[in-house]
Amino acid sequence: MPFLADPLGDTLTRIRNAYGARHEEVIMPASQWRVSLAQVLKREGYISDYWVVKESDLQKGRAIVHQALEKRLIPSVAFRNPELDWVETLKRKGLNISREAEKELRIIRQLFAAKILKHPKRWGPLKSGVLFIRLKYLEGFPPRPAITGIQQVSRPSRRLYAGRRKLPRVRAGLGIAIVSTHLGVMSDSEARRKGVGGQILAYIW
């Protein structure tokens, strides 16, 4: 994963754009901080779920990809084509794919579509894991995104801190502030209950 000058901004932008495009999931390279943020969003009801996929979770799928390249069943550029269902193509060409391997291949295809993976022989991003976040939509017609607004507060050039008595209330309590404390990343309401302050990262509503 290339160095990001503003990993907070990158993460929030990915989530904002995914909700704006009405996607079901958003995918990004995993980090301890990003997983902590996903935990807070799930606890507060803003996402449905999250999970991390690691290199060891996709061994059978990777073996199929290597086999396909060795037998030249499809060119390497095909993996980067989001319009081509190369999993079905490999099955039609007679490659023996178990149900478990097919499931892993579908995940690998998602990683190529999200441009997390860019070449079928370069699996580096999987070493630190990939974070999948399943977005949440509320009942209605059409269904409404659980997150309607995201505002980044702290930036690399300007960090905002608040003590436990001065933690902000977002939209009169209808939203949350994401706070980085010495006890970990949490919502403002969690920080109040634990009696801690910290760096105000973002507002979510």
Keywords:
alpha+beta, 6 helices, 3-stranded antiparallel beta sheet, 5-stranded antiparallel beta sheet, single chain, 33% helix, 205 residues
In short:
33% of the residues lie in helices and 21% in strands. The chain is α+β, with helices and mostly antiparallel strands. Strands 6, 7, 8, 9 and 10 form a five-stranded antiparallel β-sheet that branches.
Question: Can you describe this structure?
Answer:
The longest helix has 15 residues, at 99-113. Strands 6, 7, 8, 9 and 10 form a 5-stranded antiparallel sheet that branches. The protein has a 3-stranded antiparallel sheet with strand order 1-3-2, covered by helices on one side. Helices cover 33% and strands 21% of the residues. The protein is built from 6 helices and 10 strands, in the order αβαβαααβββββββαβ. Helix 3 crosses helix 5. It is α+β, with helices and mostly antiparallel strands. The chain is elongated, with a radius of gyration of 20 Å. The model has no long low-confidence stretch (mean pLDDT 94).
Q: Write down the overall mean pLDDT.
A: 94
The total count of strands amounts to 10
| Principal-axes shape call | elongated
DSSP summary: helix tally: 6
Task: Characterize the biggest β-sheet.
Answer: 5 strands, antiparallel
Strand content: 15-25%
What is the terminal separation in angstroms? 29 Å
Radius of gyration: 20 Å
Strand and helix layout:
Layout: H1 7-20, E1 25-29, H2 32-43, E2 47-53, H3 59-70, H4 86-92, H5 99-113, E3 130-135, E4 137-138, E5 144-145, E6 150-152, E7 161-162, E8 176-181, E9 184-187, H6 188-194, E10 198-204
Antiparallel strand pairs: 1-3, 2-3, 4-5, 6-10, 7-10, 8-9, 8-10
Helix pairs in contact: 3-5
